[in-house]
Amino acid sequence: MKHQSSKWLIGLKVAGATAMVFTFSGGAFSLAYWLTYWFYSKHEVDLPEYVLQLVNWGLGVLLLILIFAVVNLLVQPKQRAVWNEMMDALRRMAKGDFNVMVDQDKKYRGQIGDFIQSINDMAHDLKQVELLRQEFISNVSHEIQSPLTSIRGFASTLQREDLSAEEQKHYLSIIEKETTRLSRISDNLLKLTTLESEQQQLDRRRYRLDAQLESIVLACEPQWLEKELELELELEETEIAANEEMLSQVWVNLIHNAIKFTPALGSIRIVLRKVENNIAVTITDTGIGISPEDQLRIFERFYMGDKQRTRTADGSGLGLSIVKKIVELHQGDIQVKSRLLAGSTFEVTLPAE
Ligand code: ADP
C-alpha cells in the first residue's frame, strides 16, 4: 500500500516538474515572440522567414536560461541553509552532543525530509544509549561505594584500643561480608558485560536438564535446610541442547532468589515439563512476592525491589538481568507472576530443539 502511494507521489512530482518546465518554456518563447514582433514592427527588418524564426527561438532559449538562473538563485540559499544545519548537527553528534533536531518545523518533505528524519532518529537513539551508559556508570559507582564506605568505617573503628575481642570479631566479619559482596558485584558485572558484548557463539551440547536442576537443588541444600524450607521437585526426564554452564547460572540465580525471599518454613516447587516444542521450567515460592510495579523492572540491571521488604537480603540487582540475557541467548523467554505476600513464580521457556 505504502509502495503504491510512493509510486503515485513520484508520478505526481514528475508531472509537476514537467508542467513547470512547459509553463516556463511557454512563457519564455511567448515573451521572445512578443519581443521580436515588437522589434520588427518598430524597425524595418528584411530577413528570410527561417532566420526570423531562428532569432525567435534563440531569444526564447536565452530567456529560459535566464528564468532558471533566477529561480535557482532564489531557491539555493534556502537549501544551503538546511544543508549547513545538517552538517552542523552531524559535527555536534561526532563530538558527543546528541541534543540535535534538524528542521524542527518539519518544513522539508520528500528525499531531503527523509534524510533529515534519519539524522534526527539517529541523534535520538544515540542519546538513549548515552543515557543508559551514564545510568550504568552511576549505578556501578553507587553499588561499589556503599560496601567501600562500610569497610572504611569498620576498619577505622577496629583501630580503637578499647574494643573487646568479640567486638573486633564482629566488625571483621562485617568487613569480610562486604568484601565478598564487592567481589560478587565485580564478578556479576564481568559476566553481564561478557554476555552483552559477545555476539555469543553458544557452545551448546546435549545434556539432561532434569539432572542439572536436581544437582543444583542438592548443592543449595544447606541454605534451604537452614530456613527449614520444603523443596518439591517435579522433573520430567528431559534432554536439552544448550550451554550447560550458562543455564546452570540461570537456575542457581532463580533458586537462590526463591530461597532468599521466602521466609522460614515456606516452600519452593520446581517443575520441569515439555510443552509442545518448548521446555518449561517453573520455580514457585511462597515468599514475600513482588509488587506489580517491581515486576515491570526486576529484569533491569541493578534494580532491586522495595528496600524496606528486601533489606535483610543482600544482593546487587544484577542476578535477574544475567538470567534474562542468558535465556534470550538461548532464544527462550522468562516471565514472572507474583502477588505481594503470596509468593512468586518464575517461568523459563526454552525451545526444545
Ligand atoms: P538481587 O537478588 O541481587 O537483588 P536480582 O536481579 O536477582 O537481584 O533480583 C532483583 C529483585 O527482584 C530483587 O531485589 C527482589 O526485589 C526481586 N526478586 C527476585 N526474585 C524474587 C523472589 N523469588 N521473590 C521476591 N522477590 C524477588
- By DSSP (H or I, 4+ residues per run), the number of helices equals 10
Compute the number of strand runs: 7
Please identify the top-level CATH class of the largest domain. Answer: Alpha Beta
Query: Which structural class do the helices and strands define?
Result: alpha+beta
Strand content: 5-15%
Give a quick account of the main beta sheet: strands, pairing sense, barrel closure. Answer: 5 strands, mixed
Percent in helix: 55-70%
Q: Domains counted in the coordinates: how many?
A: 3
Give the CATH H-level superfamily of the largest domain: Histidine kinase-like ATPase, C-terminal domain
Multimeric state: single chain
CATH architectural label of the largest domain: 2-Layer Sandwich
Average pLDDT, all residues: 88
Task: Evaluate the radius of gyration.
Answer: 37 Å
Cα separation of the termini = 38 Å
